[in-house]
Structure formats: C-alpha cells, structure tokens
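Retro notes (design track)

What went well: tokenization of the new backbones is finally stable.
What didn't: we kept losing track of which sequence belonged to which structure.
Fix going forward: every design gets posted as structure first, then sequence, in one message. First example under the new rule, 307 residues:
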C-alpha cells in the first residue's frame, strides 16, 4: 500500500532525512533476508499520541534478533525511546512505526556472524491495512496453496525478514486470484494465519485461535484480543483449527497491528455465517478501537505516551 514520505528516519541513534535512509547493495540482509522487524501503531488519544504496547513490540524485536543469532546494538529502553523520538520528529499523531535491524555490509557469503548490525526506524501515516471497506464490511479470503513456513526450517514464530517471502508469495497468489487476503495452513495441514495477520474463529459464542505451536507469529493484537475477550466473559481457546472448520464458523476475523480487527466475510467462496461481520467480531473490534483511543481505563497501561 502507498505511503506518504515523512521528514525523518532514525538510523543507528541519529535522525536522518527520509531520502537518505538507503542501504548499500551488498547489504547481507538484502541478499539473504537476515533481518528482523516490527510493526507498531501510534494512536491519537485525548491525552496526546500514544504508542500501543511499545515495550512488547520491542521485546519481540529482541527475541526475533536472538532467534537469528543477532545481537542488537541498542537496548530495550533505547529502542523504545527511538520510537518515541521518530514519531515526535515527524510531528505525527497517529501513525505506523517500522523498526528494522539487519546484518549490513562486510564481505560476501551466507554466514553473517561478525557483520555490523544496522537499525533503522521509520514512522508514517497508515490507514486501514485491508481497506476502509474491508475493516467495516469484511474481506474475502482463500486458502493458500503455499503452506506457512515450518519452524523446522526457519524460526517461524519470529518476525524475520526472510520469512516474509512465504507471506509475499501467499498474498500475491490471493490478489492475483481476486481475493483480499490469504489463509495459510501449516505442514500439519492445520490453519496457521494470514500473510500478516493472526486468525480467530467464532463458533457458538466461543473464540478459537491456533496455538503458537501451529508455527504462527505470536501477535500482540492476538494477545490483546485474547485478554480483552476473556475479560469480557468470552471463552477463548488456543487450539488447532482444520481447514474444513473454517466453513463451519459463525464468524472469522483477522488481527494484526496493521489490520487491527478485520472481519472475514467470505472464505474459499463460501459466506462466513450470514456473509457479513458478526456480533462477536463487531463487539471485539469496537472494544479494541476504544482501548487504542485511550477510552478504556482498564487497559490504559497498554498505551505509551510520547513523553
Ligand atoms: N502474523 C504475521 C505473519 C504478521 O506479519 C503479523 C503482523 C501478525 C501475525 C500480527 O501480529 P501483531 O501485529 O503483533 O498483532 N504483520 C504486520 C504487517 C506486515 C506488513 O509489513 O505488511 C503488522 O501488522 O504490523
């Protein structure tokens, strides 16, 4: 999706101009996907801009780095400060923050051990990831012919750049076939997730979402929805979902930082429930939007102010 350039990008501890945030063609991460990244949203609230679950995102960045033997040259606090600084430097109120760390330039060859680690952070405005129409009325998805990559080949539960070739192939296939998004199964033929979202099934008022052992990204929005739904009295199960169970669902929805809570109205050309966003999805979407807007005191500690 298109984005508007902003003024500044944080690079290894300094603010540089947007146009200068480039990398050398021999960057290791470019050739071999040896990088890690995050996607974080900052929301506008009555008390000013606030970053949603900032520490949890930066902690996941550290764990993703650890999973590819990468030591980040900045600590958790420095990374959190950098995110705040980047939002402030661009005078943004609500935006998407994209930190990325990757092995840089040293020599040639697959082994990046000892290579410099570069860290960048950009911030820019981002609307509804799956469209305004999609977040309101639901999207159309299909089951991908590409399986979610296996944890036996790569750290599938980390946000590693190289892992996203899998997501890119799957989402391109979906778009070329006229769908909005894709659902990938794992090597055990169980439902994993979307190209950039976790998935929830609603059946008889119960929420079901695949467990981390299905090889999914441990989504922070997924975690938030599990907590909010449980607190609201819904039963939430983390258990494997078979493809055919998708066709029996009353409701389906995706969660993600970019996608927030996006209803799925059709799967493999079959309407989900009544073919429109269902009551549980709408309830949780509304609760989520209130929380990120700072309108629910109970979850105020999920919002990190800029100062
Ligand atoms: N699964 C995958 C594969 C994934 O990429 C994301 C985030 C999620 C689940 C949801 O995780 P969380 O954001 O913590 O709730 N995908 C990012 C978008 C990827 C993109 O660059 O496009 C995001 O939502 O920021």
């Amino acid at each position: 999706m298109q984005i508007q350039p902003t003024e500044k990008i944080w690079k290894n501890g300094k603010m540089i101009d947007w146009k200068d945030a480039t990398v050398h063609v021999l960057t290791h991460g470019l050739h071999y996907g040896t990088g890690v990244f995050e996607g974080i949203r900052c929301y506008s609230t009555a008390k000013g801009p606030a970053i949603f679950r900032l520490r949890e995102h930066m902690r996941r960045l550290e764990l993703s780095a650890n999973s590819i033997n990468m030591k980040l040259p900045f600590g958790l606090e420095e990374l959190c400060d950098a995110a705040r600084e980047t939002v402030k430097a661009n005078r943004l109120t609500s935006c998407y923050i994209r930190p990325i760390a990757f092995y840089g330039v040293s020599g040639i060859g697959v082994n990046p051990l000892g290579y410099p680690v570069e860290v960048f952070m950009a911030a820019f405005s981002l609307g509804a990831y799956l469209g305004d129409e999609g977040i309101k009325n639901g999207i159309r998805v299909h089951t991908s012919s590409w399986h979610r990559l296996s944890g036996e080949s790569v750290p599938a539960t980390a946000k590693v750049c190289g892992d996203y070739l899998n997501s890119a192939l799957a989402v391109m296939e979906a778009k070329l076939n006229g769908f909005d998004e894709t659902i990938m199964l794992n090597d055990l033929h169980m439902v994993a997730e979307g190209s950039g979202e976790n998935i929830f099934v609603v059946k008889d008022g119960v929420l079901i979402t695949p467990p981390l052992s299905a090889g999914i990204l441990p989504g922070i929005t997924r975690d938030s929805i599990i907590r909010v739904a449980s607190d609201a009295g819904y039963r939430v199960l983390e258990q494997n979902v078979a493809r055919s169970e998708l066709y029996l669902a009353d409701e389906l929805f995706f969660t993600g930082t970019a996608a927030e809570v996006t209803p799925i109205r059709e799967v493999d050309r079959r309407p989900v429930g009544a073919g429109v966003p269902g009551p549980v999805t709408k309830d949780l979407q509304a609760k989520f939007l209130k929380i990120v807007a700072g309108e629910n005191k109970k979850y105020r500690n999920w919002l990190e102010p800029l100062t």
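Added context from the reviewer: The first helix runs from residue 28 to 32.
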